[in-house]
Amino acid sequence: MAESQKTATYKVVADAGGGRVFRFYCDISGELCCVTKPIRADTEEAALEIAWDKEGKWEFNLCPKCGKYVSSAMFNVNAGLCLDCAPWETEFPAFCHHCGARLREPDACFCPICGARLQVGGTDGKEGAAE
Amino acid sequence: MIDYDLRTERDLRRVVLLEYGFGPETLRGRKVCPVCGRANSAGQTDCADCGAALPENTLYDFYRSRHRCCPSCGVAVTNVARYCPECGARLPKAVRRQEAAV
Predict the structure, then answer these.
(1) Which of B18, B40, B54, B78 is the best residue to mutate to test the A interface, defined by the most A CB atoms within 10 Å of its own CB?
(2) B77 and A87: CB-CB below 8 Å?
(3) Which among A18, A128, B14, B46 has the fewest CB atoms less than 10 Å away?
(4) Number of separate helices (H) and strands (E) present in chain B
(5) Closest Cα of chain B to A116: distance in Å?
(6) Chain B residues within an 8 Å CB radius of A98
(7) How far does Cα B20 stand from its chain's mean position?
(8) Which three-class secondary structure string do you get for chain A?
(9) Domain ranges of chain B
(10) Could you report the per-residue pLDDT of B49-82, keeping only the tens digit for each?
(11) Which residues in chain A come in under a pLDDT of 50?
């Protein structure tokens, strides 16, 4: 696993009441996922830690492969990885990605012709084909 | 309340992903404001938060731009795929991302 950052990408805005408001963004798309309540702490680092632990981290998915914090939209929940590491694969493929055979059972796990695993689960994963 | 058509397993799965904010349907229906980062629905032209003009492209277009795609139907495919799992088209050989960037 890549070493993950401590938090997602963020911006900090000083609040009129003396607190700090943190805006956390998806590491891939830049989508704003969380705006915290104003947080009072002695240093920005301390405020960030509170903001992330109490509010920020609950809105993100951590990719165990690359260590990015991403929004749900940018997370492949089937593979458990971000969409950069594992693009969406159709759950009901019509054709085998390895041999091109038309599949009769839409929810099969393996191709009946070549034996390839139909869900790869990552961009650099092995095909799992029986060659 | 949205009246979903759940007659097939495929429809049910699509709706579950959509409801929880995952999947390609979510990406197709969302645009991100380039100024404030707020997620807007794909039909909007201006950001509901800051009023900035939204791009034409949805998150799905952004996602596709980061992956190898089928030249026939346009769906994103993994680097190991030889055929498109959606339309069955033969795919051109995958180019590693580092090589493609040079």
Answers:
(1) B78
(2) yes
(3) A18
(4) 4, 2
(5) 11
(6) 81-83
(7) 15
(8) CCCCCCCCEEEEEECCCCCEEEEEECCCCCCEEEECCCECCCCHHHHHHHHHHHCHHHHCEECCCCCCEECHHHEECCCCEECCCCCCCCCCCCECCCCCCECCCCCCCECCCCCCECCCCCCCCCCCCCC
(9) 7-66, 68-102
(10) 999 999 999 999 999 999 999 999 999 998 889 9
(11) 127-131
Q: If pLDDT is split at 50, 70 and 90, which confidence band does B36 have?
A: very high
Tell me the nearest-neighbour CA distance from B37 into chain A, angstroms. 5
pLDDT score recorded for residue A127: 46
The answer to whether the Cβ–Cβ distance between B85 and A97 falls below 8 Å is yes
Domain ranges of chain A: 9-82, 89-131
Look up the ipTM and state it.
Answer: 0.82
- Interface residues from chain B to A (CB-CB < 8 Å): 9-10, 13, 17, 20-24, 26-27, 30, 32-34, 36-39, 59, 62-63, 66-67, 75-88, 90
Please give the model's pTM, rounded to 2 decimal places: 0.84
